[in-house]
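Design request, tokens follow.
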């Protein structure tokens, strides 16, 4: 898959998948138990309802081409 890491903020990991045009914000290493689809955003939760992962779909539509290019270059 075409993932690349953008940055890390503390324990959070932010990556982008070119293959599916999604920004992934990983907040925890806990296993994912379920997800809620909120349209362009999918929220993944652990068994105890802790937010583990945020997926932002169609990410290129939310940013300018210049911003996406800069993000991919980092």
């Amino acid at each position: 898959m075409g993932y690349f890491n953008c940055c890390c903020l503390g324990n959070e990991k932010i990556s982008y998948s070119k293959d599916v045009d999604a920004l992934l914000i990983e907040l925890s290493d806990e296993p994912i138990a379920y997800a809620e689809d909120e349209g362009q955003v999918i929220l993944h939760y652990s068994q105890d309802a802790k937010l583990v992962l945020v997926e932002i779909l169609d990410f290129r539509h939310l940013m300018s081409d210049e911003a996406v290019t800069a993000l991919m270059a980092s």
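Comment from the thread starter after seeing the answer: thanks! Strands lie at 3-9, 12-17, 22-26, 34-37, 41-45, 51-57.
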